[in-house]
Amino acid sequence: MKNLKFINNKLYILDQRLLPNEEKWIEITSKEQAYNAIHTLMVRGAPAIGVFAGFAMAVFANENNLYELKKYLDSARPTAVNLSWATQRIVTASQNGKNLIDEARSIQEEDIEMCRKISTHGLSLLKDGDGILTHCNAGELAASKYGTGLGPLILGQEKGYSFRVFSDETRPLLQGARLTSYELEKAGIDVTLICDNMASLVMKKGLIDAVLVGCDRIAANGDTANKIGTSALAVLAKYYDIPFYVLGPYSTVDFDCRNGDDIVIEERNGDEIKEMYFKNPTALKETKCFNPSFDVTDHSLITAIITDKGIVYPPFEKNLKETIK
Ligand code: MRU
Known about the structure:
The structure is a single chain. It is built from 11 helices and 14 strands. The chain is an alpha/beta fold. β1 (4-7) and β2 (10-14) form a beta hairpin. The longest helix has 24 residues, at 100-123. 5-S-methyl-1-O-phosphono-5-thio-D-ribulose binds at residues 41, 44-47, 80, 136, 138, 142-143, 147-149, 175, 214-216, 226-227, 293.
């Protein structure tokens, strides 16, 4: 599964908005198009946004002031730290006289390696036959290979494990329905799609052994920003005594954020709730909508944060520092 191609100095992305119905590749030829691709979720998922922005910075560096370009692309989506982390890597590479395309390729290769390690650590916590609940899409479409939240499942499948996965549809942009179920079906993994409000029922029925989710930013105290709705799953998991695992590369930890209150949460156009993926709007034009894209999961609800550098257990404040810094 690939979300990005860089061939003959040309940058292409798979338009994830059209999945699973159409696999359409788009060439990105300007910084405005790159901004738009991130902002409209043609390319999405924290690590994938970072890798894409790295290539976009490298490709459009000659026609633009690199600092301005960084600021511009960073503003396309504020919550996932991977975006500004990757654009900063390109700025630093330029200051050090490195080849920027090589640096973008390194970011991509490192992403694959980080996801492979996250997947290995995550898989060590699971048993063959486990029932897994996941939210949004934190698989290969959201990264360069394996993914984060889905990584242990994809790696496990390669190693002969069988999992039963329940994928929340993930309102309002349906990443769980459109992307996770598509990706897991293609990988041959048993997946069942459920509406977001069914999570409690599948947990109560004893169908879920662990919850696995990706993340967009991790604060120093272990609070994590994840796709909207994730914090409710964490509360449910605590109630039903199910392990709740957050998976992400070390670069997702932002020690400048002391806790979740310091994380900027992207708010998207409310019309997405009424209009995206519906034939007709589901509410009146004048009905107000509130559409935050992420919410913060309190660290007290998280069993472990699984990074490429290792599995971090509470107390997160101390253990994140020791594992990552
Ligand atoms: O809005 P999206 O689709 O970019 O949100 C994606 C998520 O929330 C993912 O779970 C997160 O970025 C981690 S992706 C490996």
